[in-house]
Amino acid sequence: QMQLQESGPGLVKPSQTLSLTCNVSGGSINSDGYYWAWFRQFPGKGLEWLGYSYRTGNAQYNPSLKSRISISVDRSKNEISLTVTSVTAADTAMYYCARTKLSGRVDPWGQGTLVTVSS
Amino acid sequence: DIQLTQSPSSLSASLGDRVTITCRASQSISSYLHWYHQKPGKAPQLLIYATSTLHTGVPSRFSGTGSGTDFTLTINGLQPEDFATYYCQQGYMTPWTFGQGTTVEI
After folding, report:
1. Rounded to an integer, what distance in angstroms lies between the CA atom of residue A36 and that of residue A53?
2. What is the pLDDT of residues A54-77, one digit of tens each?
3. Distance CA B41, CA A5 (A)
4. Residue B90: its chain A contacts at CB < 8 A?
5. DSSP-derived pairing of the beta strands A11-12 and A113-117
6. Segments of A1-119 assigned E as strands
7. Which portions of chain B are predicted below pLDDT 50?
8. Residues with Cβ within 8 Å of residue A76, at least 6 apart in sequence
9. What does the alpha-carbon distance between residue B13 and residue B3 come to, in Å, rounded to a whole number?
10. Distance CA A26, CA B86 (A)
11. Which residues of A touch B (CB under 8 A)?
12. Rg over CA atoms, chain A
């Protein structure tokens, strides 16, 4: 059974860079037809898709963050990474990694990691 | 971006009740509509994908219907473990978007 586990700093200062890693176990990120995505959920519970990457590194991002976000895959480590630059308090959220299909179906999800942006 | 509007935002129900949640899209999304539920402190979990296909292990009391812009999630015979927040999500076009959620309470 595939499991995803996010990791990274829980506190980031404003204007700095948020960097998270997602380790995939019980399956390979080299699997054909699956994309590896990041989502976030704000304290008010709204969910937002941030972007996804294929195993080749071909990525697509939410235009709302397009200039600040990068998603990459490391096939040797079976990991996915997320970077968001120039963070503000509005980036405070629970961040989830997940496996997706191009149809938008998301399963499974990681357990999530809370990131707070504060000085 | 495609907007998804769920109704109601919350509802109170009893064990054994039939519950219906609707999700309306701001434009046609064909059948690219998925449903998730989320319990407090947990990640969302896939319930139904492509409008009406139950994810592996999801009980048959859950069902989904719809097409185009109007979709429905129905729970027939509410069970204790069904008290949660339910979200719809469209995968028709990026950016993928979610409804605001419907909380099912006792």
Report:
1. 5
2. 999 899 999 999 789 999 999 999
3. 15
4. 104
5. parallel
6. 3-7, 11-12, 18-25, 35-41, 47-53, 59-61, 69-74, 79-84, 93-100, 106-109, 113-117
7. none
8. none
9. 27
10. 27
11. 45-49, 60, 62-64, 96, 101-112
12. 13
Q: Which two structure tokens, joined as six digits, stand for A89?
A: 């308090």
- Number of residues that make up chain A: 119
Question: Is B25 in contact with B33 (CB distance < 8 Å)?
Answer: yes
Answer yes or no: are the C-beta atoms of A80 and A73 closer than 8 Å. yes
Helix (H, G, I), strand (E, B) or coil at A66: coil
d(C-alpha A112, C-alpha A4), whole Å? 9
pLDDT for res A44 = 85
Least CB–CB distance from A63: residue in B49, B85, B95: B95
Nearest to B43 among A63, A102, A112 (CB): A112
pLDDT in tens, A11-69: 999 999 999 999 999 999 999 999 999 999 999 899 999 999 999 989 999 999 978 99
- DSSP 3-state of A90: helix
Q: Which residues pair with A60 in a beta bridge?
A: A52
> Would you give the distance in Å from CA B72 to the centre of its chain?
7
Work out whether the CA dihedral A115, B105, B45, A100 comes out positive or negative: negative
Strands B18-25 and B33-38: unpaired
CB A23 within 8 A of CB A5: yes
